[in-house]
Prior knowledge:
Elements: H1 3-20, E1 22-23, E2 26-27, E3 37-38, H2 39-49, H3 57-70, E4 81-83, H4 93-101, E5 114-115, H5 124-140, H6 143-161, E6 188-189, H7 190-209, H8 215-232, H9 242-248, H10 253-262, E7 272-274, E8 277-278, E9 282-283, H11 284-293, H12 298-311, E10 322-323, H13 355-367, H14 371-386, H15 413-428
Antiparallel strand pairs: 1-2, 3-4, 4-5, 6-7, 7-8, 9-10
Amino acid sequence: MHEDELVETALEKAEVVLEGNEGKLGLLGARNAYQQVWARDAAISGLGLLLSRRPKAQQVFARSFETLQRFQSPLGNIPHCVGFPNPNDPALFALKQVMKQKGVPASPSVVEPEADTAHSGCVDSSLWYILGRYYQHKVTKNTNILRESWASMERAFLWLRYQDSNECGLLEVHEAMDWADLFANRYNVLYDNVLYYACAQSMRSMAEALGKDGAAYQQTADDIRKKVNLLLWVGPEQERDLDWVLRHRREWLYPIRITDVVLVQRPYYLPYMAFRDYGDRCDVLGNLLAILFGVADQTKAERILDYIEQTGLASPHPIRVLHPVVNPGDKDWREYYRLRNLNQPYQYHNGGIWPFVGGFYVAALAKAGHVDEAKGQLARLAALNQCGRKSEWEFNEWFHGQSGRPMGFAYQSWSAGMYIYAYHCVKSGFPIAFGGEFVSN
């Protein structure tokens, strides 16, 4: 199949996958697994869903977010996911085993949905909820929906502010409490704080669309961006004012000094900074989002993209999510990585290939002005989504980082949704809704 034909066929197939993943509560995570509405999945899939040519796409997106909003906690947190109880779901194998041991019937006797409590502390559910609402408004221009959901978003943002336990201006995140929910990123995590910056920017934009003053949100955003760059970028591209740190954030002195001495420089943002500790790997998704949402300036964006190219992270397919991988015996290795054989080296969060992250790679390339490279990677992403274990066009969840073979569940919503989004970023020449200009640090 010719490259252009492959790209167009993938678009059609992706729209079919999303259409087939509709459920009573909204967009489900996948066709035969993840039979719930997941906050992060719904928002990330929604980047493509709202651009789909299918007539019900906007309705499915709206229903997903209505479900999430309905189950918002009293303190404002958005649930990790919402679904019907006791599903026959292969992705929830461990839960099924517990229910079987306790004699709980596989088919639910109660038909009311419920919020998940397995990962109820995941920080990025509220982050992606706000970003999804922002994107919904940017694409649909529906101010009525924005007005009706505004109080919910304010509560979600307030809940996020209280996740800044030491009031440093950045989120403090517990281990394995975001999309990498079986991985040891922790405390001031790149991925979550980049999303936090994007949320503050989005709240400012939405407030102004409602005729409200968004200045406080912009001040918050500027502060987050400044501190992410101060704390998590090591190298001459970022000036570090240690006098300011000494006066205002003394706890950061030790990790900043030790990373300056030990690492000297890195061509990517560090994945996390913890109490007298830090991670030294390239969290690919966090770095791509830093480019897309504007935490990185043009110079840092080029350094990150060059590093991805030099290390071959987009080979055999776009794109592996971690480099280098964590091996048993490493500081960041955890015994729970062995759970269901998931996080072995080059698998799952530990260096596996994720098509939805490949979509963000295409978008980041477009944001940085690498339009030809973005076009080429889109074709490679189309070929990846064509690969299947049983048939073509399975839009698999994730692939082995070395063999490139599918290992996750088929017909994954965010694999399909992010292909659609990446496709339109290439056609437009810039990321939809998140384009903007780079600003200097």
